[in-house]
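Lecture 7 notes: from sequence to structure.

We start with a single chain of 236 residues. Read the sequence below before looking at the structure.
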Amino acid sequence: MGKTTHAVVMTSCARFLIPIENHKKLMKLLENLNWRYATKSFNPDKKVSAEHIKSLKEAVRLSASSYGLQLYRVLVIENPDVRSELRKVSYDQKQITEASHLFVFCTLTERFEEGIDEYFHLLFQTPGANKNELNSYWNTTKLMVSGMEETNRKSWMEKQCYLAMSTLLMACAELKIDACPMEGFEKERYDSILGLREKGLNASVIVPVGYRSDFDQTQYRVKVRKDQETLFISLP
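Now the structure, written as C-alpha cells:
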C-alpha cells in the first residue's frame, strides 16, 4: 500500500514538474534576452569555440522560414584579412574585425527555383510522404514565388534572412555569446569582395559574434524597451 501511495504521489508531482520546468526555461530565456545588447566593442582576444559556432549554425538551420524554403545562404567568416577588407566598406565599424566571427546573411538573386526544388526533394524523402499532395504543393509554391514582381520577391527573401538572424541572436544570448545585428554596410561592395554575384547571392544583413570588451560602455546602459501596454493591442 505504501509503495502504491508513493507512486501515486510521485506521478501527481510529475504533472506539476513539467509546467514548472517550462516556466523556468522561459524565465531563463527572458533573462538572457535582457542580458544581450547590440555589442559595440568586442574583445579581439576571445574567440567563439568551434562547438559553439556549430550550435549557432544549427539554430539558424532550424529557424522559421516561409514555407520552410530557406531561400538564403549564410557565410561565416573568420579570416581576418577578409574582414579587414569588409570593414572598409562597413563605415569602418570596428565590430567587423574585433569580433570572433562574422555572419553574412545572403538572399538568392537567381536560381531561387532550384532552392525550392532542394526543399521539396528533402520533403519527398520523409517517411510517409504523399507524393501526389507534395507535387501539387511543389507546383503551387513555385508558381507563387516566380509570380512575384522582382522587387517584391527581393523584399520577401530579405525578410527570411531577418527571421534567421533573429534566431541567431536568441541562440547567441542563450550561449552568452555577444552579437550585433548590422545593416550599415555597402551591400554591393560586400557582393564584390566576397564574390557573391558569381554565387547568385546578395548580402542582406550581417552579424558579428564574439565576446564583449570590458571597455564597451554600452553594456552598462539600462535596456530601454516600450512596455507591454504600449506595444501590444488586445482585440476583443
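Residues 38-109+159-214 form a domain with the NADH Oxidase fold (CATH 3.40.109.10). Keep this in mind for problem set 3.
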